[in-house]
Structure formats: C-alpha cells, structure tokens
Amino acid sequence: MKHNVEELLSTHGVKPTPQRMVIAEYLLSTHSHPTADDVFQAVKGKLPVSLSRATVYNTLNALVAKGVIQEVTTEAGRVRYDANMSDHHHFVDIETGNVIDIPAGTLNQIKLELGDQYKIRSFHVTIFGEVVGGKAKE
Amino acid sequence: MKHNVEELLSTHGVKPTPQRMVIAEYLLSTHSHPTADDVFQAVKGKLPVSLSRATVYNTLNALVAKGVIQEVTTEAGRVRYDANMSDHHHFVDIETGNVIDIPAGTLNQIKLELGDQYKIRSFHVTIFGEVVGGKAKE
DNA sequence: TCTATGCTTAGACTTATTCTAAATACAGAA
DNA sequence: TTCTGTATTTAGAATAAGTCTAAGCATAGA
Ligand SMILES: [Mn+2]
Ligand SMILES: [Mn+2]
Ligand SMILES: [Zn+2]
Ligand SMILES: [Zn+2]
Hints:
Two copies of one chain form a homodimer.
Chain A: H1 5-11, H2 18-29, H3 36-43, H4 53-65, E1 70-73, E2 79-82, E3 88-93, E4 99-103, H5 110-114, E5 118-131
The complex binds manganese (II) ion (2 copies) and zinc ion (ZN) (2 copies).
The site of one zinc ion has 7 residues of chain A, from strand 3.
The first copy, chain A, binds a DNA duplex through helix 4.
C-alpha cells in the first residue's frame, strides 16, 4: 500500500513541503521506531538540497503536535518516533533493543495475545490522567 | 520508619560513603520521582564538603545497576529516579506533572483499583522480554 | 510584480550526561 | 603505625540531543 503522504499531512494541518514529505514517508515506511538522528541519516540524500537537523526536529515536533506520529520512550532518555497511531503497546527485545508493536487489547490478555514467541521479562504501565479532588499525595 | 541506609547500600554491594548515603537517604525519603538535578539540588549542602554532579550521576547509576533504585521515564527524554522497588506502575498527573505510585495488580483491575480519584486519559504498556524463535518482524 | 508569511538552513547555544585527570580517602599488608 | 594500592570524589572539559537565531528562500495571494 502506497501512502498518500501529501494528503495525510494536509488533512492534519501540516503543509506538505518536500522535506516534510520525505520525513513522513520514511516514518510511514518503517516499523523500527527510529530516533531523530536515525530519521536524519535515513532521509538526507533523498532531497536535491541539503537537509538541516533543525528541519528534522521541527518536522518531528510538528508531526507529533498534529497527531500524525507519536513519541515513544523505551530506554530512559531516548526518544523514538512512531507513525503507527493505532492503539498499541510496545515490546522491547532486551537482546537486540528492537521495539515491536503489540496491538492493544484488554491488558490482562496481553500474555495470551503475545503467544509463545514473546517471553515477558517485565512490563511497565504508565498512566496519564488527572487526579480529581486534589487529595492524592505527590 | 527510619531507613538504615548504610545497611541497605552494603547489602547491595555499594560501599556506603557519606555522599552515597545522603543521596540514597534523599531518594528513600521522597515519593516525588526526582530528576538527577533535583537530587543534586536537594542533597548539596547536606555535606561538609562540596558535592560534584559527577558524584550524583555516578551514585545514581551505581544504585540503578545494583538494584537499589530504578529509572522511570514518563515524559519523553526526562529521566527520573525512584527508590520504590515494589512492583508498581506510575500515574502521571497531566495537570501538574506529578508522578504517583500505583501498586501493581492484575492489569485489567487497574481502573477499579485506582477508583474515582483518578481519571485515566491514556496509558501505555511497555513490555521488556525476549523474542524466541527469531521470526518476529522488527 | 510585490509583499507578507512561512519554511529551511547553518551554526550558535543550551542542557543533560559522561569523561578525564588530579586529589583524597582508606582498607589491608607489612 | 606506616605504606601502598584501589576506590572515590572533585572540577572542569567533552559530548550529544535538542532548541534557538538570524538570514535567505519559496510562494500564495493582493
Ligand atoms: Mn518533543
Ligand atoms: Mn543511566
Ligand atoms: Zn509503535
Ligand atoms: Zn514509582
């Protein structure tokens, strides 16, 4: 399936410039959850002009802000980018560091859904929300 | 309950120096999931000698390596430290940024266990493990 | 064509973290 | 005790991710 990147960007309110298109194209083409520098390395050279790191960061931030991609953190301090916006979680292969998408589902079924192929060493749930009533301790 | 920090460090194979003790003491005394700089600010001045940032980082890394504390990432790119080593997850208050400990339990019970006080906006499960059989796609 | 706005660029800057080299501390050997 | 090797700490240099700045470029619309 060939992505219509131009339309994807337009419908999300991001003007589709050549730089942005090639960055978005790359993100949509991979499941590798690349870092900003991974994106920069993969994409420079695909344009007739030189590509600035600032543009990569500006574009990644814009795409995150507009909901085209998301940031993913697996190892402390490392930011990765993910064009898969479906409801899913991440499996980190502790041998290779690879980050694999895991479709969401009721959480207590994760083990079953994963099947024998994945041996869970540990997992961590991070919840984002609001505390109402103000009496939760720091 | 007064923590015996000296013994805690010793039993984990970390030689209890004054710098390490005061850092560990601070981590054990708070639920705030502080950053490295938070730790530095809180702890410098509690020693007769000056405290180096390098020592703070060295100590935090050593305590993580020895399993005395853990790293926690909630916002992309920000590393926090947590002396709570019980099996628990984290609730991030999206208004204040506060990180609150949530005891583990079967994951499908999380909503019930949290109760009315917490309004879940979203959550994310990160799983660490191994892929066996080698046929999982990146 | 003119102009305003937005986009991109190179490089400077900032900030978090690691590294380096020298000084200190100190446990154990003698 | 003193000696001595190893670990620890320190200040500051170095690195790396990310942001900011100022200038140039592109282009949509008047
Ligand atoms: Mn960001
Ligand atoms: Mn670390
Ligand atoms: Zn993903
Ligand atoms: Zn915690």
